[in-house]
Design a protein that fits this description.
The protein is an alpha+beta fold and 229 residues long. The chain contains nine helices and nine strands. Strand 2 and strand 3 form a beta hairpin. The N terminus is likely disordered.
């Protein structure tokens, strides 16, 4: 079932990164090429060493460093992950709260197909969130960064991952979960973030690739499941 704590309005925090080594430190920790980031900002990823996505981050340059905007629920986790690698580095990290973020409603998040805390809680690699997500958050030419090895290997193999993020709509959360979990091993598939629009529930979730190729889904006329490409 959907985790209700993620049904509230999105809240945002920022990790302010400063100091003379800020750029070189982030270059080794984030998936984007920090040397190309300006004040307008870009999406990036903070990965675990095994390539699992901890969170997406909107990174922007400021006069004395960078701001890393991310979901407030993951602020402490991201800060702890960055501090693990802050060794003999002239760099400061400060977590602050924000009034607004890259999106401010669940409708905006779902329409944009943008994963949030509930999606990242599944413990998946970037390719599970779609090709456009990878293209907009990962540089494969910048050099080494934490978590790069598995992400690069999956990209070289054509990103053939078993789990795919989807946008789904149907009469109820229960019905959507029934369809999304009907194929593949248990534990990952299902609805993660949802909102009600009139008589329908619309949300993000995960499905096994075998479901997206099945006739059963095509015959389920009361639901719509679209892979986030």
């Amino acid at each position: 079932m959907t985790d209700r704590k993620f049904d509230t309005m999105p809240r945002w925090s920022s990790i302010v990164v400063g100091g003379p080594d800020a750029a070189s430190f982030l270059q080794g920790q984030l998936s984007q090429d920090i040397t190309t980031v300006g004040p307008a900002g870009v999406w990036s990823l903070l990965l675990a060493p095994d390539g699992i996505v901890i969170t997406s981050i909107y990174v922007a340059a400021i006069p004395d460093g960078y701001t890393l905007s991310l979901a407030r629920e993951l602020g402490d986790v991201a800060l702890a992950r960055l501090r693990r690698f802050l060794l003999r580095t002239a760099c400061t990290l400060e977590l602050i709260e924000l009034d607004h973020g890259p999106y401010d409603t669940r409708d905006e998040q779902i329409d944009a197909g943008r994963p949030g805390p509930a999606e990242f809680a599944r413990g998946l690699t970037p390719q599970c969130f779609g090709g456009a997500f990878v293209a907009s958050t990962v540089s494969f030419t910048k050099g080494c960064f934490t978590g790069q090895e598995l992400v690069g290997r999956l990209d070289a193999r054509g990103s053939s991952v078993p789990w795919r993020m989807v946008r789904a709509s149907g009469p109820s959360e229960a019905r959507l979960n029934e369809v999304l979990t009907s194929k593949g091993p248990s534990g990952t598939a299902g609805l993660t973030t949802s909102t009600r629009r009139g008589e329908s529930v619309v949300g993000l979730g995960f499905a096994h690739r075998s479901l997206l190729a099945s006739e059963e889904l095509l015959l389920a006329t009361d639901v719509s499941v679209e892979e986030i490409a």
